Amino acid sequence: xSYETSTQTGTCRCGAVEIEVSKAPVMTxxxxxxxxxxxxxxxxxxxxxxxxxxxxxxxxxxxxxxxxGPDLDHYCCPKCMTWMxxxxxxxxxxxxxxxxxxxxxxxxxxxxxTPFIETMVANKLPWADTPASHKFDAMPExxxxxxxLAAFAQRTL
Length: 157
Fold this sequence. Notes:
Blueprint: E1 8-11, E2 18-21, E3 27-31, H1 34-40, E4 45-51, E5 55-59, E6 63-68, E7 72-76, E8 83-88, E9 94-97, H2 106-112, E10 117-119, E11 134-135, H3 145-154
Parallel strand pairs: 3-10, 10-11
Antiparallel strand pairs: 1-2, 2-5, 3-4, 4-9, 6-7, 7-8, 8-9
């Protein structure tokens, strides 16, 4: 069963920036890299990969914070510095949104926040477990993404 979405609006912690997403995620992930651990002050970061044409800053402006090129840029609220989304160099078609910015129903959490893949598992804290179906010690190889995207689209929620 594929996952459909209505437009979601998410905010930073202070509410100065709103992000509007009008496309459903094509993949969800938990990243265990040490950079994400430090940025999120947690064991991993959550990501909903969304088509770029479905993402817009609806209120306020974002600034680059955290990682700033050349491989990726983190975008944050300039007031509270909430990490809102990431753009990865070479993946211009997708934006990695932090799904916890949205007020999601229980059904939407399955599609937006539950990780389908885990990346950088080699850096995982020993007690940090997720229900992800696919686990990768590093980043998945590029040639594995078409099959992962297809499997994500076909999952049952």
